[in-house]
Amino acid sequence: MTAVSVATTTDLSRARSRFPQVLRSEWTKVWSVRSTMWTLLSLVVVTMGFSALFAWGQTSNLHRLSAQELATVDPTNTAMAGLAFGQLAIAVLGVMIISSEYSTGGIRTTLTAVPDRLRVLAAKWLVFGILAWVVGTITAFGAFFVAMPFWAHYDRAVSLGDPGVLRAVLGGGLIALASGMLGFALGTLLRHTAGAITAAVALLFVIPPLTNLLPGSWGNAIAIRFTTNASQNISAVVHQPGQLTPWVGYAWMTLEWVVPVLLGAYLMRRRDA
Q1: So where are the chain's domains?
Q2: How far is CA 214 from CA 132, 208, 217, 233, 259, in A?
Q3: Is 79:53 a contact under the CB 8 Å cutoff?
Q4: Which of 167-186 are b and which e, b meaning 16 or more Cβ less than 10 Å from the residue's Cβ?
Q5: Radius of gyration of the chain from Cα atoms?
Q6: One pLDDT digit (tens) per residue for the chain, 273 residues
Q7: Distance of CA 148 to the CA centre of its chain
């Protein structure tokens, strides 16, 4: 009787730790806390609000620009400019997806149910990645359609069918994904919510402008490849001289969150819960 009970318990444990079941569990965790909905709502509202503000401000000053300056105006990139502020919300959520379990001690329960730590991490990564990309893309399209009426008033609006525009708007969703995954990577590495959020703010907002102050060609090489300095090119239609091409820039941003995630995965296996 005891042998049968042990076998049944073992089979049940294996069933619960299969990847589809782990995915379902992580999806439930994400939506079981109010902070998820409020954080995603912040991403949408802040991004669209600032995109409208930037469009209004830039179109109001078009008459002051020279012909040469008008040639470099990029309505699509301006519409995506709100992501520079909205991305903080998705980065914070990325941190909390994993760090909150460490702060509450819930990670012990999770790892008891699913002893394979990399399977847990992969499930969290996949669930959050899909969520960040979908909501980020919806937000990017919303920001585009909110901003274009301001440009239409001056006959400078663009449509999704124009060359490079659809790629740039979809790139806005990719920026949200990369920002969220950087937060996720820092949460995995540091396992401390406040510390990881502080690091995310520094890497996304504080350090990128400062890298432009680095001297010489080596300083410029670092600056154009550093997090948001590199990723912002994916949402641009008009290429700026001296900047990376859209996909090369985004590849650098991707590398800058993939490496910390891999390091975090290694440490997750080595450290105690």
Answers
A1: 2-270
A2: 32, 11, 9, 20, 24
A3: no
A4: bbbbbbbbbbbbbbbbbbbb
A5: 22
A6: 454 443 444 444 455 578 899 999 999 989 988 889 999 999 999 999 999 999 999 988 888 888 788 878 899 999 999 998 999 999 999 999 999 888 888 888 888 888 889 999 999 999 999 999 999 999 999 999 999 999 998 888 899 999 999 999 999 999 999 999 999 999 999 999 999 999 999 999 999 999 988 998 899 999 999 999 999 999 999 988 888 999 999 999 999 999 999 999 999 888 876
A7: 24
